[in-house]
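Lecture notes, part 5. Sequence design as translation. It can be helpful to think of inverse folding as translation between two languages: the language of shapes and the language of residues. The source text, in structure tokens, appears below.
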């Protein structure tokens, strides 16, 4: 464990924050190019299920590789193990289960899938290397109010995210095509309930980890998903005349 690498991991975390801000600006200037926003022009595309599995898998595989190739000294401590498990549980669901549940789904542009893959490699390394080698917690950190509140937020956010994805998958009955207004759950209050769940989840993880690395991931997630949610919200307002005007974009009663 080298002090210099610890500083490098901090620098990578700050860079992740900057990338989140940059990505947020770019998404406002250039629309997402997958799903309902996919261009009809010919392009190299990846089937939806394969794209989601491939782009999310590094966040599961890279931490396992990081921990296997070196002595993960800090994982001898319960707080480090629990925090890393929180990260891995999300991405096990996202890379191994979520793709299998996709119904249909439009192919994703290769470059979009590649960018997501690269981010998952970057962030998977950052989080796992920090937690396995450098994060120092007292053994009773798991009873600290910050950890307990963060863990609860993480769990609630993940459940909101999974439930909201379930609602989106079941909007259309077998044989139906086209788009519908999501109903039920937190979709009664916000346009992007699934994104809200993910933001809550990673803010909880950041609070529980009480680290620059966890905070950077939460900040990146917030920047990117708020921009995407704004795009979705505007699309629904333009597409459906009866779209509920009281719905917020991503945060109930606020934004």
């Amino acid at each position: 464990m080298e002090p210099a690498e610890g500083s490098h991991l901090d620098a990578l975390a700050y860079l992740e924050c900057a990338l989140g801000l940059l990505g947020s600006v770019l998404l406002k200037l250039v629309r997402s190019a997958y799903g309902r926003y996919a261009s009809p022009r010919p392009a190299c595309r990846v089937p939806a299920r394969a794209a989601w599995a491939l782009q999310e898998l590094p966040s599961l595989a890279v931490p396992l590789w990081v921990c296997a190739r070196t002595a993960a000294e800090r994982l001898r401590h319960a707080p480090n193990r629990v925090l890393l498990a929180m990260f891995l549980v999300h991405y096990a669901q996202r890379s191994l289960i979520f793709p299998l549940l996709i119904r249909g789904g439009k192919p994703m542009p290769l470059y979009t899938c590649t960018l997501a893959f690269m981010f998952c490699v970057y962030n998977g390394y950052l989080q796992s290397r920090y937690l396995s080698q450098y994060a120092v917690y007292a053994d009773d950190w798991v009873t600290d109010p910050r950890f307990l509140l963060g863990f609860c937020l993480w769990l609630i956010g993940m459940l909101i995210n999974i439930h909201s994805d379930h609602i989106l998958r079941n909007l259309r009955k077998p044989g139906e095509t086209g788009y519908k207004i999501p109903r039920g759950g937190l979709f009664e209050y916000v346009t992007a309930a699934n994104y809200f769940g993910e933001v809550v989840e990673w803010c909880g993880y950041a609070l529980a980890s009480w680290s620059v690395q966890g905070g950077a991931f939460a900040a990146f997630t917030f920047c990117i998903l708020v921009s995407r949610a704004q795009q979705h919200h505007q699309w629904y307002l333009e597409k459906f005349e009866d779209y509920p005007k009281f719905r917020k974009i991503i945060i109930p009663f606020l934004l």
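The translated text above is only one of many valid answers, since several sequences can fold into similar shapes. The helical segments are 3-29, 48-56, 58-69, 78-101, 110-134, 145-169, 193-209, 212-239.
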